[in-house]
Amino acid sequence: MLGGFNFDIIGEYLPLLLKGALLTIGISVASIFLGSLLGLVVGFGKMSRRWFLHYPAVCYVNFFRGTPLYVQILMVHFGLVYAVLGRTNSIVAAITALSLNSAAYSAEIYRAGIQSIDKGQTEAAHSLGMNQSQTMRHIILPQAIKRMIPAFGNEFITLLKDSSLIAIVAAPEIMYWANAMNGQYMRIWEPYLTAALIYFILTYSLNRLLVYIERKV
Amino acid sequence: MDAIIQVRNLSKSFGTNAVLQDINVDIQPSEVVVVIGPSGSGKSTFLRCLNLLEQPNGGEIVINGQSLMDKKTSITEIRSEVGMVFQQFNLFPHKRVIDNITLAPILVRKWPEEKARAKAMELLDKVGLAEKAEAYPPSLSGGQAQRVAIARALAMEPKIMLFDEPTSALDPEMVGEVLAVMQQLAREGMTMVVVTHEMGFAREVGDRVLFMEQGYVVEEGPPAEVFGSPKQERTRAFLSKVL
Q1: CA–CA distance, A81 with A91 (Å, rounded to integer)
Q2: What is the C-alpha separation between A65 and A69, in angstroms, rounded?
Q3: pLDDT single digits (tens) A89-132
């Protein structure tokens, strides 16, 4: 099967694949950023004792964790983005779908991190006269964030790999070009092995970065 | 003199479990009140009601002339006047000792940093830990951590100090250093409410002892009386087990 592995077609497609990699990086970074921000809102909503904040957040997390990302991408692309913009835009759809999906997982990471801090910390801060937001900002979050980093590392790496699914809405990222290469030459190993290698380089670099950050904090 | 803490008909329950029932206590300024009793008797809950870490279900608490049940009373304001020391110290592990102490005065009292630092160093000196100012809490022994926790509470210049079993989590050889700091504080005229199993401390430092059982204050009086000639059978039974 590997006989006659054709490096020429890889050479031909490499500039496109690398351009695709840049788009993958861009979409992933944007989605990680937006997903983390939205996740913070959803996470605090889920921890709220007010029902009108709590229940929507619970539904949000259940929906986005309980349905396939593939389905979400299609709904966002042909439904949401089309309804809002009046036309489809695969990159906007990709960032929106990945951010919405990642927010559900991030929300759980925030919640777990914050609730893992001993309640004695909150009590000590309160006993000193600190209010809720001072306690959160100065006492709870700095300790909780440290515990969230490994979980966020997993989430970011998952998101980067899941971004390959957006090829289905023709966003010209890595898998889009790998599929094109497969279509043009009817070859399996050249396009997909190359794509896998590029993804691996990206996730491995991200992993090293996260290990560095974890050690720094 | 007017009582600095007035507790009237205080009751508290968790679900259907009544942990405090009809508590009535007046505490005078500079008084040291020691609360003793078997575990589960409601001692800690009583203490935690005094700074609203637990919300009472009934009755009234008046501190410094302000009712805690009054909706207009600022909880954070009351709490800045009432320091608390916990069994598990609850130091902030991500902040250096000095920052543990200066944080609340800077955030809550709005002190400039130099003033807060000067106060913190003075207090660290007082509890004998000036050389630990730059250390992080996880590197301290239990006795040191608890003395820092006392300094942290004192930095707010509270009028009242609450101690919730401050020596129960300590190795025996470290109990003395913490009790010494508390004793000095009592001598300086601090109003203190202390939940403890240290009967020696209760006898020597306490002005008054409250014996609690099953949510009630069963007996109260000067330590010499409560320890020497307890009136209630239940007090006698408890003391015979712990002394």
Answers
A1: 10
A2: 9
A3: 999 999 999 999 999 999 999 999 999 999 999 999 999 999 99
Which residues from B are below 8 Å from A121, CB to CB? 90, 92
Closest Cβ opposite residue A129 in set B79, B90, B149: B79
What is the mean predicted confidence (pLDDT) over B80-99?
96
Count Cβ neighbours within 10 Å for each residue of A161-192 and write b for 16 or more, e otherwise. Answer: ebbbbbbbbebbbbbbbbbbbbeeeebeebbe
> Closest chain A residue to B84 measured between Cα atoms?
A127
Judged by DSSP in three states, A105 sits in: helix
Collect all residues of chain A within an 8 Å Cβ-Cβ radius of residue B153. 127-128
User: Which residue out of A121, A127, A134, A140 would a mutagenesis test of the B interface target, given it has the greatest number of B Cβ atoms within 10 Å?
Assistant: A127
Spatial distance between the Cα atoms of A47 and B137, rounded to a whole number of angstroms? 29
The helix (run of H) or strand (run of E) holding residue A24 is helix A7-47
Using CA atoms, how far apart are residues B243 and B240, in angstroms rounded to an integer?
6
Q: How far does A83 lie from chain B, in Å, by closest CA? A: 47
ipTM of the complex: 0.94
Put simply, the answer to whether A124 touches B90 (Cβ < 8 Å) is yes
Q: Count CA within 13 A, CB hemisphere, residue A56.
A: 7
pTM given for the model? 0.85
Is the CB of A122 inside 8 Å of chain B's CB atoms?
A: no
**B215 contact partners, CB below 8 Å, separation of at least 6:** B18, B19, B20, B21, B41, B42
Q: Compare CB distances from A139 to B51, B82, B92 and report the shortest one's residue.
A: B92
Token pair belonging to A171: 């966003």
Q: Which of A124, A142, A143 sits opposite B86 (nearest CB)?
A: A124
Buried b (16+ CB within 10 A) or exposed e, B159-190: bbbbbbbbbeebeeebbebbbebbeebbeeeb
Band of the pLDDT at B243, cuts 50, 70, 90?
A: confident
